Amino acid sequence: MRKYTITIFLLILPILIWAGVDQTPHNFTSSTYSKNAYFVGTRQVCVFCHTHHNGNQTLGAALWNHETNETQTYTMYSSNTMDMTQSAQPHKGSLVCLSCHDGTIAINSLNNLPGQEQAGLYGSPGGSNLDGSGRLAASSHAFVGTDLTDDHPVGITYDASQDIGNFQAKTGNSASYPDRLLSEGLYVECSSCHNPHDNTFSNFLVEDNSGSQLCLRCHIK
Question: What separation, in Å, do the N-terminal and C-terminal C-alpha atoms of the chain show?
Answer without folding.
Answer: 51
